[in-house]
Amino acid sequence: MEVRSLGWQTDLMVRRLAGSSVEDRGDHIVVRTPHNPDYWWGNFFLMPAPPRAGDAETWLAQFAAEFPGAAHVAIGLDGVDGDVGHEPDLRAAGLVPELSVVLTTTTLPQPVRVDPAAEVRALTTDEDWEQETALRLLVRDVDEVAGERFIRRRIAETRELIDSGRGLWVGGFVDGRLVSSLGLVTDGSGLGRYQTVETHPEFRRRGLAGLGIRHAAELAMASYGVNRLVIIADVDYFALDLYRRLGFADAERQAQWERPAPSG
Ligand SMILES: CC(C)(COP(=O)(O)OP(=O)(O)OC[C@H]1O[C@@H](n2cnc3c(N)ncnc32)[C@H](O)[C@@H]1OP(=O)(O)O)[C@@H](O)C(=O)NCCC(=O)NCCS
Fold first, then answer.
1. Is the CB of 241 within 6 Å of ligand 1?
2. Tens digits of per-residue pLDDT, 138-170?
3. Of 31, 74, 252, 263, which has the maximum CB count within 10 A?
4. SS3 35
5. Cβ burial 236-261 (10 Å sphere, 16+ → b, else e)
6. pLDDT higher than threshold 60 for residue 264
7. Dihedral through CA 178, CA 184, CA 235, CA 252, nearest 10?
8. Using an 8 Å Cβ cutoff, are 58 and 32 in contact?
9. 245: which DSSP letter?
10. Is 208 touching ligand 1 by the criterion CB < 6 Å?
């Protein structure tokens, strides 16, 4: 199956580099992340087109057969216009559609403001990565064991990816404390995909995310052969304004269906 969307192409690029299996079944793609089975978007289907009436039953049966132990359902739709397809049957099965905007630029992002108190640099040490874990747990408001295990697995995967030269992770530090971070992953093809842009709630709107995005772009363009940057934001979240102000342009809309696993 040929993947048309830059959003999904770069999602699959990141998954492959992170050690997930990406199996092309001809009429759909199965992505599997055995080292983190609770990661919905590491264990998902990518379909070539939005669902038509009658597709839901087949899709859900295929998903259940492929991921028999999974409590979640995650189905991406290749396409560029955000069409979520025929909704009633998937909604009746408890799934909800999600829309994102895929933005790109080939020039260096321009930060909207610069926080003079911040030091922006790549994460390298064990302590940096411990701080990254603490920041992620705080931003995501995770306080239960399963949630923390999930975050630690995600970060262990990320660190392996970065340590093996597939990209970089950048932090904004104030007084030595990590308060903002994000990643950029590339397979050497020239495409660089941003990951997990996050700022500590008490340090927001000081320009830290913008600075990190700029710094990661500089490093990626200078040392990783990246010439096209890709970033994705929820269609109704203000991160979209930030990315547009930095100079990213809307390229396509990405659609997906998801049924979260019950929590608890
Ligand atoms: C999105 C996020 C990373 C921004 O981090 P930040 O360090 O505050 O971002 P910056 O200071 O560089 O950019 C600020 C700009 O972003 C936009 N923005 C940030 N917070 C906003 C808010 N609450 N309401 C409206 N616009 C907002 C504005 O354009 C703002 O500029 P302004 O302050 O001049 O209006 C941060 O809010 C966050 O961590 N959110 C939770 C995690 C998340 O969802 N990340 C996005 C994944 S796509």
1. yes
2. 999 998 998 999 999 999 999 999 999 999 999
3. 74
4. coil
5. eeeebebbeebbbeebbbbbbbbbee
6. no
7. 170
8. no
9. H
10. yes
Amino acid (one-letter) located at 169: W
- Write down the pTM of the prediction: 0.96
Ligand 1 atom 33: residue of nearest CA = 205
Residue 101, beta-bridge partner list: 233, 253
81 DSSP assignment? B
Which residue's CA lies nearest to atom 16 of ligand 1? 242
- Contacts of 154-157 with CB under 8 Å at 24 or more apart are 154/36, 154/39, 155/129, 157/18, 157/19, 157/35, 157/36
Checking 32-40 for CB contacts under 8 A at 24+ apart, the result is 32/67, 35/153, 35/157, 36/150, 36/153, 36/154, 36/157, 37/69, 37/70, 38/146, 38/150, 38/153, 38/261, 39/150, 39/153, 39/154, 40/72, 40/74, 40/258, 40/260, 40/261
Exposure string for 135-145, b = 16+ CB within 10 A, e = fewer:
bbbeeeeeeee
Measured in Å, residue 229 CA sits from the centre of ligand 1 at 19
Q: Which residue has the higher pLDDT, 38 or 9?
A: 9
In the sheet with 249-259, reading across from the earlier edge strand, the strands are 21-24, 29-32, 44-47, 73-77, 249-259, 96-105, 228-234, 191-199, 177-186, 167-174, 118-122
Q: How far apart are CA 229 and CA 254, in angstroms?
A: 16
Distance of CA 51 from the midpoint of ligand 1 (Å): 33
Whose tokens are 């289907």? That residue is 45
Q: Which domains does the chain have, with CATH numbers?
A: 6-102+255-259 (no CATH), 118-226 (3.40.630.30)
Q: How confident is the model over 225-233, as a mean pLDDT?
A: 98
